[in-house]
Inverse folding.
């Protein structure tokens, strides 16, 4: 019970802090980022030997559920979580001691903005189709190619970039590199407009004969596919934690609004259609919180994540989208006005069924693994499903 109380306190403290954050603009993004770092949000899930707080994934989830409930900027909350799981964690798991010392302290302090550069225009969900090349030269590599839809890309100080080092080896020919904004030949294109998550700049990165020293490669040459899979498992488990927090806020606001709003001489909460929406929002919230708890249990126990990560990402992204539309319907015309939290949540939620792999890709992963597990022969040579 004592541990459970500490977990709940983490969420409450994060919610109270997030409420105080100012609206993010291009001018104050770095200042807000530094403020979040000073609160300690970037330290979660980072072991103490690397400068983090040594918290568990369960504690991470509690913190960012509260953060997402208090912060109405879903894009900012998601960007913070993304840095933890797609920048900091890969550096810890796959980086050399020199790489960790060079980059982690500034990431944790909020002094460095990072980006995870995987997707290309011609290779969205098919990582093995990457065309960016890293050709060996004396002392390192030369990168040529481009990346698309990179969150924080236009503003990043560093990026983890995936490139082909030996295309003939297929998945074993991919490698990962840390690229600096000041590297000659590294071009950050301007931010692109998008439907939602507007506080997070998104754009293309380009590499024109960009020379990278060998000590900035993550892991051995050819480890890129393993790094991609591991990082995507982490991201899919936890990237939407703050949006589950937003679902808590949605439910509370819809319940209060429905109880207070009167039409035809009664509270609209007494209309069955409205009551059903609130009930469905509650069920979605409960199942999403349970999936996060399960994901954290698996991560903390160092158990395989791939299939459950796809399930968590699929369910939470679609649940947030459904609940965002239900919240908009419940608030009626007020909810449709520009600037309303219901309108913003609906736009932000649409991105969730695309990033970290589309819902279609998540279903493909789940089904492929399920069918593969069921078709394995048992000790008698029969299939496991009889």
């Amino acid at each position: 019970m004592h541990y459970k109380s500490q977990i709940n306190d983490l969420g409450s403290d994060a919610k109270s802090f997030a409420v105080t954050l100012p609206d993010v603009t291009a001018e104050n993004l770095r200042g807000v980022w530094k403020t979040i770092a000073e609160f300690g949000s970037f330290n979660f899930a980072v072991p103490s030997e690397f400068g983090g707080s040594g918290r568990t994934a369960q504690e991470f989830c509690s913190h960012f559920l509260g953060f997402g409930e208090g912060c109405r900027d879903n894009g900012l909350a998601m960007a913070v979580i993304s840095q933890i799981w797609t920048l900091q964690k890969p550096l810890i798991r796959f980086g050399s001691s020199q790489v960790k010392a060079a980059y982690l302290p500034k990431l944790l302090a909020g002094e460095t903005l990072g980006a995870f550069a995987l997707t290309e225009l011609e290779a969205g969900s098919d990582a093995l189709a990457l065309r960016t090349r890293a050709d060996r030269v004396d002392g390192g590599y030369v990168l040529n190619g481009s990346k698309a839809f990179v969150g924080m890309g236009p503003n990043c100080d560093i990026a983890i970039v995936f490139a082909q080092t030996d295309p003939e080896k297929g998945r074993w020919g991919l490698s990962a590199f840390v690229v600096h904004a000041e590297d000659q030949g590294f071009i950050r294109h301007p931010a692109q407009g998008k439907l939602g998550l507007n506080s997070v700049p998104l754009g293309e990165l380009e590499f024109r004969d960009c020379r990278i020293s060998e000590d900035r490669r993550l892991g051995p040459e050819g480890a890129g596919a393993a790094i991609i899979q591991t990082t995507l498992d982490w991201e899919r488990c936890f990237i939407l934690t703050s949006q589950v927090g937003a679902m808590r806020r949605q439910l509370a606001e819809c319940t209060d609004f429905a109880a207070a709003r009167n039409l035809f001489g009664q509270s609209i909460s007494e209309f069955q259609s409205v009551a059903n929406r609130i009930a469905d929002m509650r069920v979605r919230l409960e199942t999403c919180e349970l999936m996060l708890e399960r994901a954290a249990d698996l991560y903390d126990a160092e158990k395989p994540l791939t299939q459950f990560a796809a399930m968590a990402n699929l369910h939470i992204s679609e649940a947030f989208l459904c609940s965002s539309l239900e919240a908009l319907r419940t608030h009626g015309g007020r909810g449709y006005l520009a600037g309303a939290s219901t309108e913003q949540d609906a736009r932000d939620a649409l991105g969730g069924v695309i990033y970290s792999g589309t819902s279609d890709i998540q279903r493909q992963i789940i089904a492929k693994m399920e069918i593969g597990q069921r078709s394995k022969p048992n000790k008698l040579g029969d299939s496991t499903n009889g």
User: Anything to note?
Assistant: The CA atoms of residues 20 and 213 lie 42 Å apart. The first helix runs from residue 2 to 19. Confidence is low (pLDDT under 50) at residues 379-386. The radius of gyration is 22 Å.
